[in-house]
């Protein structure tokens, strides 16, 4: 690295340092939100291990607000971690999708050839 690239890198490092410092509070708030959401998702997954549940049942068993449970259930469903089961009255029962033993593309290709 030559002197000119080193000298131009220093102002950038300083600018990034000031930016991180200025946004420290926001970063901490967002990081805490992410940790809380992970705990909520883990709580829903844990309840679903015992079998299918409706959104109101999940809300009751996790102590979460039903609207928050609904958003998280929709997200888990979108990413294939849970499935919509039978309808129970006005609500669907949601069930956990068991994790695949080995879902890597290489494993799939080798089983298809074999």
Helix fraction by DSSP (H/I, runs of at least 4):
55-70%
Order of helices and strands: HHHHEEH
Strand content: 5-15%
CATH architecture: Orthogonal Bundle
Calculate Rg over CA atoms. Answer: 23 Å
Distance between the termini: 52 Å
Q: What's the arrangement of strands in the largest beta sheet?
A: 1-2
What is the molecular shape? elongated
Total domain modules: 1
- CATH fold naming: Arc Repressor Mutant, subunit A
Any idea what the CATH superfamily is called? Winged helix-like DNA-binding domain superfamily/Winged helix DNA-binding domain
The whole-number mean of residue pLDDT values reads: 86
| Secondary-structure class | mainly alpha
Number of strands: 2
Largest sheet: 2 strands, antiparallel
Number of DSSP helices? 5
What would your notes on this structure say?
By secondary structure, the chain is mostly helical. It has one domain: Winged helix-like DNA-binding domain superfamily/Winged helix DNA-binding domain (Arc Repressor Mutant, subunit A), CATH 1.10.10.10. The chain is 66% helix and 11% strand. The chain has 5 helices and 2 strands; from the N terminus they run ααααββα. It has helices at residues 3-22, 24-48, 55-62, 66-78, 105-113; strands at residues 82-88, 91-96. Strands 1-2 form a two-stranded antiparallel sheet. β1 (82-88) and β2 form a beta hairpin. α3 packs across α4. The longest helix has 25 residues, at 24-48. It is elongated, with a radius of gyration of 23 Å. The model is unreliable at 1-5 and 110-114 (pLDDT under 50).
